[in-house]
Amino acid sequence: MTRVIVFGATGLLGQGVLEACLQAPDVTEVLVVARSTTGREHPKLREIEHRDFTDYSAVADRLVGYDGCFFCLGTTSAGKQEAQYRIANRDIPIAAARAVLAANPEAAFCYVSGAGTDAGSRLMWARVKGETENALLALGTGTYMFRPAIILPLPGARLRSRLNTALYAVIVPAAPLLRRMIPDRITSAVEVGRAMIRTAEIRPPDRVLENARIVALSASSAP
Asked: Can you tell me where the transmembrane regions are (predicted)?
Protein backbone atom coordinates (compact mmCIF):
# COMPACT_ATOMS: atom_id res chain seq x y z
CA MET A 1 0.00 0.00 0.00
CA THR A 2 1.20 3.50 -0.84
CA ARG A 3 1.05 6.87 0.92
CA VAL A 4 1.91 9.83 -1.30
CA ILE A 5 2.50 13.58 -1.21
CA VAL A 6 1.27 15.81 -4.04
CA PHE A 7 2.54 19.31 -4.78
CA GLY A 8 0.58 21.46 -7.21
CA ALA A 9 -2.74 19.65 -6.77
CA THR A 10 -4.78 22.68 -7.85
CA GLY A 11 -3.03 23.13 -11.19
CA LEU A 12 -3.99 21.74 -14.58
CA LEU A 13 -1.76 18.68 -14.19
CA GLY A 14 -2.04 18.35 -10.44
CA GLN A 15 -5.83 18.10 -10.45
CA GLY A 16 -5.59 14.97 -12.59
CA VAL A 17 -2.72 13.52 -10.57
CA LEU A 18 -4.70 14.02 -7.37
CA GLU A 19 -7.75 12.36 -8.92
CA ALA A 20 -5.65 9.36 -9.98
CA CYS A 21 -4.34 9.02 -6.42
CA LEU A 22 -7.79 9.23 -4.88
CA GLN A 23 -9.10 6.62 -7.33
CA ALA A 24 -6.20 4.19 -6.91
CA PRO A 25 -7.05 1.29 -4.56
CA ASP A 26 -3.39 0.87 -3.56
CA VAL A 27 -3.01 4.51 -2.45
CA THR A 28 -4.17 4.74 1.15
CA GLU A 29 -3.38 8.39 1.90
CA VAL A 30 -2.73 11.53 -0.13
CA LEU A 31 -1.11 14.54 1.50
CA VAL A 32 -1.49 17.75 -0.53
CA VAL A 33 0.97 20.55 0.15
CA ALA A 34 -0.38 23.81 -1.26
CA ARG A 35 -0.77 27.51 -0.63
CA SER A 36 -4.55 27.12 -0.54
CA THR A 37 -6.98 24.29 0.00
CA THR A 38 -8.12 22.09 -2.88
CA GLY A 39 -11.74 22.45 -1.76
CA ARG A 40 -12.15 18.68 -1.97
CA GLU A 41 -13.23 16.21 0.67
CA HIS A 42 -12.18 12.57 0.57
CA PRO A 43 -11.37 9.94 3.23
CA LYS A 44 -7.82 9.58 1.85
CA LEU A 45 -7.10 13.29 1.57
CA ARG A 46 -4.97 15.31 3.99
CA GLU A 47 -3.85 18.89 3.33
CA ILE A 48 -1.12 21.24 4.53
CA GLU A 49 -1.47 24.91 3.72
CA HIS A 50 2.10 26.18 3.35
CA ARG A 51 3.39 29.49 2.05
CA ASP A 52 7.18 29.29 1.68
CA PHE A 53 7.97 26.62 -0.88
CA THR A 54 11.71 27.04 -0.40
CA ASP A 55 11.63 26.19 3.32
CA TYR A 56 9.79 23.21 4.85
CA SER A 57 11.30 23.27 8.34
CA ALA A 58 7.97 24.27 9.91
CA VAL A 59 6.17 21.23 8.47
CA ALA A 60 9.03 18.70 8.29
CA ASP A 61 7.48 16.39 10.88
CA ARG A 62 4.26 16.17 8.82
CA LEU A 63 6.14 14.92 5.75
CA VAL A 64 7.34 11.72 7.42
CA GLY A 65 5.96 8.30 6.49
CA TYR A 66 5.36 8.57 2.74
CA ASP A 67 6.34 6.29 -0.12
CA GLY A 68 6.20 8.77 -2.98
CA CYS A 69 6.05 12.47 -3.80
CA PHE A 70 4.50 13.75 -7.02
CA PHE A 71 5.72 17.25 -7.82
CA CYS A 72 3.41 19.00 -10.28
CA LEU A 73 4.21 22.64 -9.52
CA GLY A 74 5.65 24.87 -12.21
CA THR A 75 5.11 28.07 -14.13
CA THR A 76 5.20 29.11 -17.76
CA SER A 77 8.23 31.01 -19.01
CA ALA A 78 6.02 33.52 -20.86
CA GLY A 79 6.74 37.04 -19.66
CA LYS A 80 9.32 35.96 -17.08
CA GLN A 81 12.99 36.78 -16.70
CA GLU A 82 15.30 33.80 -16.21
CA ALA A 83 16.04 34.66 -12.55
CA GLN A 84 12.31 34.69 -11.75
CA TYR A 85 11.69 31.50 -13.72
CA ARG A 86 14.51 29.71 -11.88
CA ILE A 87 12.93 30.30 -8.49
CA ALA A 88 9.69 28.56 -9.47
CA ASN A 89 11.14 25.83 -11.67
CA ARG A 90 14.49 25.07 -10.06
CA ASP A 91 14.82 26.36 -6.50
CA ILE A 92 11.36 25.29 -5.36
CA PRO A 93 11.36 21.68 -6.69
CA ILE A 94 14.88 21.07 -5.40
CA ALA A 95 13.94 22.39 -1.95
CA ALA A 96 10.85 20.16 -1.92
CA ALA A 97 12.81 17.09 -2.98
CA ARG A 98 15.42 17.63 -0.29
CA ALA A 99 12.76 18.05 2.40
CA VAL A 100 10.73 15.01 1.32
CA LEU A 101 13.75 12.74 0.89
CA ALA A 102 15.22 13.84 4.22
CA ALA A 103 11.95 12.76 5.85
CA ASN A 104 11.57 9.63 3.67
CA PRO A 105 14.95 8.42 2.34
CA GLU A 106 13.37 5.48 0.48
CA ALA A 107 10.59 7.50 -1.19
CA ALA A 108 10.21 8.00 -4.93
CA PHE A 109 10.25 11.66 -5.97
CA CYS A 110 8.55 12.24 -9.33
CA TYR A 111 9.19 15.62 -10.94
CA VAL A 112 7.34 16.87 -14.02
CA SER A 113 9.49 18.81 -16.47
CA GLY A 114 8.23 18.31 -20.02
CA ALA A 115 9.08 17.06 -23.48
CA GLY A 116 12.08 18.89 -24.88
CA THR A 117 13.78 19.45 -21.54
CA ASP A 118 17.53 19.72 -22.08
CA ALA A 119 20.18 21.33 -19.89
CA GLY A 120 22.16 22.17 -23.04
CA SER A 121 19.28 23.87 -24.85
CA ARG A 122 19.34 27.46 -26.04
CA LEU A 123 15.72 27.74 -24.91
CA MET A 124 15.63 29.20 -21.41
CA TRP A 125 12.80 27.04 -20.08
CA ALA A 126 14.29 23.81 -21.43
CA ARG A 127 17.74 24.64 -20.07
CA VAL A 128 16.49 25.57 -16.58
CA LYS A 129 14.31 22.49 -16.31
CA GLY A 130 17.18 20.36 -17.60
CA GLU A 131 19.42 21.76 -14.87
CA THR A 132 16.67 20.99 -12.36
CA GLU A 133 16.43 17.41 -13.61
CA ASN A 134 20.19 16.94 -13.26
CA ALA A 135 20.17 18.31 -9.72
CA LEU A 136 17.29 16.03 -8.73
CA LEU A 137 18.84 12.96 -10.34
CA ALA A 138 21.97 13.62 -8.28
CA LEU A 139 19.99 13.39 -5.04
CA GLY A 140 19.65 9.61 -5.27
CA THR A 141 18.24 6.69 -7.19
CA GLY A 142 14.66 7.39 -6.09
CA THR A 143 14.18 10.51 -8.20
CA TYR A 144 12.30 10.28 -11.51
CA MET A 145 11.89 12.86 -14.26
CA PHE A 146 8.57 12.91 -16.13
CA ARG A 147 8.51 14.48 -19.59
CA PRO A 148 4.93 14.49 -20.88
CA ALA A 149 4.15 16.27 -24.14
CA ILE A 150 0.49 17.23 -24.73
CA ILE A 151 -1.45 16.79 -21.48
CA LEU A 152 -5.23 16.52 -21.48
CA PRO A 153 -6.76 18.00 -18.33
CA LEU A 154 -9.12 16.21 -15.98
CA PRO A 155 -12.69 16.71 -17.27
CA GLY A 156 -14.12 19.71 -15.48
CA ALA A 157 -10.69 20.86 -14.31
CA ARG A 158 -10.31 24.49 -13.28
CA LEU A 159 -8.09 26.26 -15.82
CA ARG A 160 -6.53 29.38 -14.38
CA SER A 161 -5.60 31.31 -17.49
CA ARG A 162 -7.59 32.47 -20.50
CA LEU A 163 -4.84 31.09 -22.72
CA ASN A 164 -5.24 27.57 -21.32
CA THR A 165 -9.01 27.83 -21.52
CA ALA A 166 -8.84 28.79 -25.19
CA LEU A 167 -6.11 26.24 -26.00
CA TYR A 168 -7.88 23.30 -24.42
CA ALA A 169 -11.20 24.27 -25.95
CA VAL A 170 -9.53 23.21 -29.20
CA ILE A 171 -7.34 20.34 -27.98
CA VAL A 172 -9.88 18.41 -25.88
CA PRO A 173 -12.44 17.83 -28.68
CA ALA A 174 -9.56 16.78 -30.95
CA ALA A 175 -8.13 14.33 -28.39
CA PRO A 176 -9.43 11.10 -29.99
CA LEU A 177 -7.91 12.12 -33.33
CA LEU A 178 -4.64 13.20 -31.71
CA ARG A 179 -4.35 9.87 -29.90
CA ARG A 180 -4.59 8.08 -33.24
CA MET A 181 -2.23 10.43 -35.09
CA ILE A 182 0.43 11.03 -32.42
CA PRO A 183 -0.08 8.43 -29.69
CA ASP A 184 3.44 8.91 -28.34
CA ARG A 185 2.92 12.66 -27.89
CA ILE A 186 -0.33 12.83 -25.95
CA THR A 187 -1.38 11.75 -22.48
CA SER A 188 -3.77 12.92 -19.79
CA ALA A 189 -3.23 14.39 -16.35
CA VAL A 190 -4.84 11.29 -14.83
CA GLU A 191 -2.54 9.02 -16.84
CA VAL A 192 0.49 10.93 -15.56
CA GLY A 193 -0.82 10.37 -12.03
CA ARG A 194 -1.26 6.64 -12.63
CA ALA A 195 2.25 6.44 -14.05
CA MET A 196 3.61 8.18 -10.96
CA ILE A 197 1.82 5.71 -8.69
CA ARG A 198 3.25 2.81 -10.69
CA THR A 199 6.71 4.35 -10.53
CA ALA A 200 6.51 4.68 -6.75
CA GLU A 201 5.50 1.02 -6.54
CA ILE A 202 7.97 -0.68 -8.92
CA ARG A 203 10.89 1.79 -9.12
CA PRO A 204 11.74 1.30 -12.82
CA PRO A 205 15.42 1.43 -13.79
CA ASP A 206 14.87 4.22 -16.33
CA ARG A 207 14.65 7.48 -14.42
CA VAL A 208 13.92 9.91 -17.27
CA LEU A 209 10.47 9.02 -18.57
CA GLU A 210 9.34 10.38 -21.92
CA ASN A 211 5.68 10.57 -22.95
CA ALA A 212 5.41 7.06 -24.43
CA ARG A 213 6.92 5.52 -21.29
CA ILE A 214 4.50 7.49 -19.12
CA VAL A 215 1.55 6.14 -21.11
CA ALA A 216 2.87 2.59 -20.79
CA LEU A 217 3.36 2.89 -17.02
CA SER A 218 -0.12 4.34 -16.70
CA ALA A 219 -1.64 1.42 -18.61
CA SER A 220 0.05 -1.04 -16.26
CA SER A 221 -1.34 0.84 -13.24
CA ALA A 222 -4.91 1.53 -14.35
CA PRO A 223 -7.54 0.04 -12.01
From this structure: none
